[in-house]
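Pipeline run #58 for the internal structure catalog. This entry was flagged by the ingest filter as a single-chain record with no existing model, so it goes straight to prediction. Upstream metadata was stripped on purpose; only the residue string is passed forward. Reviewer on rotation: M.T. Logging verbosity set to normal.
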Amino acid sequence: MINIFKKINFLPGIILIIIFITPALIAQRVAQGILRLINNLFSYFDYMGISGGYAGKFYELLIVEGLGSAVYCGGMLLFPMYLNKRFFKKFEINWLPGIILVFLFFGLASLYALYLLFFKALGKVDWIDTVSYIVSYIAYTAGFLVVIFYSLQYSETNNKYVKKIIDKFK
């Protein structure tokens, strides 16, 4: 019976990730609102002299989308991992299938955004919208990939392929 529980120890991780989808989405919306408010506060003082132009718009997209997707992915992955390590130390969960599930969740959304850019919007919108779409795509993708990488480190998985990937980026 113990062997069965050791083989399905990934299920609680996936269930926790599914449970934390909605709170993580709410945290993303709150973080994006706070980041936009901070950006508006900084643009009021305009210490860089670029807040009213295109560079300010692209900078806001980069920060808001990147950190927003990082908060969303972190709320789905890192918060349940932290709760498990902090309060349920004896409960061993294999987080690798959950990390793969979250990677597919964000990766498919990112690929769909790329599909929309190349096959639906490219050539039909002006260059400012195209550049802003590309900047938001890069920020979204970088935001969730950074959190996936840190969650792979935090999960302390024993998979040899994951360890090779982590060692390459250290």
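catalog note: The mean pLDDT is 83.
catalog note: The chain is about 80% helix and 0% strand.
status: ready for reviewer M.T.
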